Every structure is written in structure tokens, then in C-alpha cells.
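Hello Y.,

Per our agreement to keep a running log of every chain we model this quarter, I'm adding this entry. I've kept the format consistent with earlier entries: sequence first, then predicted structure.
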Amino acid sequence: MRLKLVILFFFPILSACSVAISLMSSKLPFILSFVQLVPLLYIVLTTDKIKNIILICFIYTFILYFTLLWGVNNYGVHIFIITLFIKFINHSFIMLAVNYINKKYSNTPYLNIFIFSILFILIKELFFVVFNAPNLYYVANGTSENLFFQLVSVIGSEGVDFIIIFVNFFIAMELKSLFTIKMVSKKQIVSFSLITLFLCINFFHFNNLFDYREYNQTKNNNQVSFSIIQGSVPRSQYVKAEKKSDLMSKIGNHYVNLTLESQVLKQSDVVLWPETTVKYFSVVEKALEKNINKFNLIGGFLKYDPKIGTTNSILFIDKTGIVKSRYDKVITVPIAERMYVKGKKTNNISFNNYKIATPICFEALFPNLIRNLVLTGANLIITFTNEAGLKSEGLSYAIAKQTILRGVENNRDVIRVSQSGPSLFASRDGNISKESKFFETTFLKGNVRMYSGFSIYTKYRGFIIIITLLLSLLLFGFIHNKNQKNDD
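Predicted structure for the entry above:
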């Protein structure tokens, strides 16, 4: 009895810690993704009590998000509570459905694995869309492996997530069979091996059909230079400055001076300031008037319009001081950004003959949003964020890695502009060329290419996944029926 209680509490904690560590580190091997959820899923598949499932879902969710968000200050604690509640409901829905199907249809365990995996992804995505709850994919710990990035460019984060969950369910199911003294049959091993082989063949088949001449196509074959200005202004200082205009002006001058310093050594084509650098653009307007002829600026500011209200915006200001292009945040953070008006539609920032996708903050966690921006002509992805409300760098690094995935998915170089770090330059294959530290006052300079070709994921997204899964399901049904007839 005691051993069961220990397992009941320890296994979900083990899964939660494993996932949290992998989200925050890029040094762990990608293969670890295929065992992270096994302890949690094993408990769900072997327990009979609903209250136990709800308990382990709470333990798993609390440990995972507490590990990621333990460093938030008062500014961000409500985000932790809301995220915890939504994710707890999310995981409870999934695990209760899994447990019910597993008991109801126990004679078709391998068909159940497909159903479980599809349910897991569908319910998770549903909660993601309905509640705008940040969705950190399990694939995030593969950011240092070429095979992982190749997979992401074909089937995206959602597709690789499905494969990971599928394998975790399979291992948990086999462990259940072993511990209930039901030996794994040769037929089961052969069936799973054939399905896995079929999935791999499909992936490489679609990959080889792809036209890499289009994939490698660039816009005018030019490189563009950018300078990231990371001011690292603490959240407490920013809150005080909101009440005193002179303090906000000091923050603005801090960014102007850093910008001028960065431009002394080597002038860049564009200077980048993070999300909500200062409260309103008017705060730095005078300081920029004296120096704007020295650089082009793309940065984050609040824009107030008496007709519609305040928007969280990205502005492109050219050397003449004129706002040439603007993007308003369309997916605001629940509750934390309730005072801002959402943008009416997504659009790219126009610079010279190029288009730049400029998602703000956690918009980078929405793969389809970025994909749509690329489909409408974006040659580069630049994400702007202000995470000074976080005391811990763990969540910032986890979100930064998700940003890199958006570039890999869509065949675009990525720049991340953060107020508190890490800011970075990453190529379309996921390699980071330059990166700042958390809360380091600095500037980074780098060159990026403006690509125009689409990846397989950008062009087709879920089409390849759906076709492959349907064919795999048909293959599985054929093998399963044949095995049943042989058994009879």
C-alpha cells in the first residue's frame, strides 16, 4: 500500500521535473523526450480511481509550472495561478478520457495508443486556442540536434509533439503489460516496428519530394544588418517610471544612448528596441528627433488612439523620423494585458523591399500565427518581448527556444529582441550565432538573410501529418485484424 502511494506521488513529479528541465536546457539529447511522460502515463493507465487521476494531474501540473514560473514577482504571479488552473483542467480532461477509453476498450491496446495521442494533441490545442494559455511543446529540448530540426521543418512542433506522445504512450502501455505479467508478444513488437518504419518512410519520402531550390530562395540574395538594444531595466524601476514622467524619460534616454554607442563601432541597417521600451512613443520622440537621422528603428511602444484606445505596438521609424509601418499585437496576454486593445488583423512590417514578421511576446508560442505571417510574405521573423517581470531566467529561455522553433518551421532566420534577455540571432536551421545573457545591459549586432522560399510545414502544415496518420491507422487496422484471425 505504501509503495503504491509512493509511486502515485513520485511518478508524476518525475515526469514534471523531466519536462521542465528539458524545456529550459538545449543540452539534453532529443531522445529523452520519448520517456519523459512515461511515469505519468503509466499511473494513468494503471489506476482505477478518478480522484487519483485528478490528484496526479494536479501534482504534475503544479510541479511543472512552478518549476518554470517560481521566479515570477508580484507582477507575474497571477499569470502563474491562471496558467496552473487552465493546465490542470486541460491535463485532467486528457487523462480522464485516456483512463476511460483504456478501461472500456482494453482488448484493443494498440488502437488506443493512436486515439490517446490524437486526444492529447487535440485537447491541448483546443485549450491553447480558447484560453490563449501558453503552450510549451515537449519537443523544445531538441534545439541542438539536426534531425530534430529536420522533423520540425516538415511537420512542425505539433507534429513532433504527436510522435513523442505516441511513443510515450506505447512505452507506458508495454510497461503496464510487463508489470501485470502479460508478456509482450512477438506480434505486438512486429506490429509496432512496421508502423514506426512506415512513419519514417513517409517522412523521408515527403522530404525527398520537396523542392530545395525554392526552399533556399532568398529575397534579392541580400543580407541585412541589425543591432539589438537590450536595456535590462528592472520591472520595479519601470513601474515607478509609469507614475513619474521624468523617470520614464530617463529610461528612454538610456535606450537612445545605448543605441548611439552601438552605432559608433559599426552602423547597422536597422536598430531594434524591445516590447514596450518606454510607455509611449512620445516619451522618446524629442530625443530621437536629434539622432534619428543616424539610424532606422523598429521598436515596441504603446500607442494611444482616442477612438480605439491603447495598443501594444511595433513601429518602424525611418531616418526621417516618420512612422512608416506598424503592427498591433493581436493576441494579448489574458488579464495581464486587459487594458490594451487587440489589433484587428495580423500584418508584416515593411522595410525597403522586405517584409518582417514582428510577433510580440507570447505570440511566438502560436505556430499558426507565425506561419500565416510567413505565407503573407514575411522574409524574416523578429520577436519583441519584455520579460523584466520575471526573476528567473528559466521561463525566458524556454520561450526563447520556442521562438527559434518558429524560424525552423518556416525556413526563416530569427531575431529575438528582449528587454531583459536572452536576446539572440538564430539561423533558419536553429543555430544561434549570437546570444545575450539574462539581465545583461548590452547590444548585439548580426547579419541575417531574407528568405522567400517556404518549408514543407509552411506550405502544407497538417496535411502531411493527417495523411501519414490515416495511412498508419489503416495499416495498423489491417495488422490487428490479421493477428486476431490468427489467434482465433
